[in-house]
Specification:
By secondary structure, this protein is α/β, with parallel strands linked by helices. The protein has 11 helices and 10 strands. The strands form 2 sheets. An 8-stranded parallel sheet has the order 7-6-5-4-3-2-9-8. The chain has a two-stranded parallel ribbon with strand order 1-10. Helix 4 packs across helix 5. The longest helix has 18 residues.
C-alpha cells in the first residue's frame, strides 16, 4: 500500500525566483502545495502564475508579521512601515505596546489580498517564522473564522524533539505552539501535524537527511515544510535564507528523491486531497 506524504513549500511570493522554483516542483509532482506571502508588490503577478494550479495543489496563506513591509503601513505593529523582527514581536504584544487591533488589521489585509487575487479562500494557513502560533494570531484565527462553515486547515505543532542537532530549535517551536493543536481543533479547524522539516538551514547538507527521515516516518496527517527557490536580486534584498533554497530545490527535483519515494512505497500527496 502506498503511503502519502504532505510536502509544503513556504514563501511563495517572496521573490520571483522562489515562486518559479516552487511552481516547477508543483508541476513535476514534487510538492503538495505552497504557502503564499501576499504583501509584496509582485503579488498580483505571482497570484496569476499560481492560479492555474489551484485544482492540483494546496495553496495556502503564509501569514507574515516579521521583517518585511507591512501591507497596512505604519502602525504600532510597524512604526516605520516595516514589520518587526521575531525576537521583538511576541513580548511587546503581550505587554500591550503593540495594539492587537493593528496586528489583526495586517492579517486581515494579507488574507483579503489572497482571497481577491485567487478568487477564494486559502486551503490552509500557517505562519512565516511560525507566527501563527502566537496568542495574538490565535485570537485572529478564532475571530476571523467564528461560525464559518468552511475553515482552512492549519499547520500544527512539531512532534516531540529527538536527540539530534535540531533538538533545541524543534523544542523552541513546540513551546511556542503549546496548546495550539488542542484549542484550534476544539474550534473546528483541521490540524496538519506533526510538523517536520525543521533543521539548521545554515547547514544545507542537513536538508536531505531531514527529507529522507520524513519519507520513512512522517504520518499522512503530518506536514514536511521546505523552502526551495532560485536566488535572485529581489530575494537577496529581502531575506537572509538564500543559497540553501537552491540546495532544497536540487534535492526535491532530483532523480534520487523520486527513487527514494519508490523504494519507501511513498508518494507526494496530491494537493487536492
Amino acid at each position: 500500500m502506498t503511503r502519502s506524504i504532505r510536502l509544503i513549500a513556504d514563501d511563495y511570493g517572496l521573490a520571483p525566483g522562489v515562486s518559479s522554483a516552487i511552481l516547477e516542483l508543483i508541476e513535476r509532482g514534487r510538492l503538495t502545495g505552497t504557502g503564499c506571502m501576499t504583501g509584496f508588490p509582485e503579488w498580483q503577478e505571482a497570484a496569476a502564475r499560481i492560479r492555474p494550479f489551484r485544482k492540483r495543489a494546496a495553496v495556502g496563506l503564509h501569514l507574515t508579521l516579521t521583517d518585511q513591509i507591512a501591507v497596512t503601513g505604519p502602525s504600532s505593529l510597524a512604526p516605520d512601515g516595516k514589520l518587526p523582527g521575531l525576537a521583538s514581536l511576541a513580548l511587546p504584544v503581550r505587554r500591550g505596546r503593540i495594539d492587537e487591533r493593528d496586528v489583526h488589521a495586517e492579517l486581515d489585509a494579507q488574507y483579503d489580498r489572497f482571497a481577491e487575487a485567487l478568487a477564494g479562500p486559502p486551503d490552509y494557513i500557517d505562519g512565516h517564522q511560525h507566527v501563527h502560533f502566537l496568542p495574538v494570531v490565535r485570537n485572529w484565527l478564532l475571530a476571523r473564522f467564528e461560525g464559518s462553515a468552511r475553515k482552512p486547515a492549519l499547520r500544527g505543532a512539531p512532534g516531540l524533539p529527538g536527540l539530534d542537532a535540531a533538538t533545541a530549535k524543534i523544542a523552541a517551536i513546540a513551546a511556542l505552539a503549546a496548546g495550539f493543536n488542542r484549542s484550534m481543533r476544539r474550534a473546528g479547524f483541521n490540524i496538519m501535524t506533526p510538523l517536520s522539516g525543521i533543521y539548521d538551514w545554515r547547514q544545507p547538507a542537513k536538508f536531505a537527511p531531514a527529507l529522507r527521515a520524513a519519507i520513512e516516518t512522517l504520518p499522512e496527517q503530518g506536514v514536511f515544510m521546505c523552502h526551495p527557490g532560485h536566488v535572485d536580486d529581489i530575494l537577496r534584498a529581502r531575506d537572509s535564507m538564500q543559497g540553501v533554497r537552491e540546495v532544497e530545490f536540487a534535492v526535491l527535483s532530483s532523480e534520487e528523491f523520486g527513487a527514494r519515494l519508490d523504494r519507501a512505497g511513498a508518494r507526494v500527496m496530491d494537493g487536492s486531497a
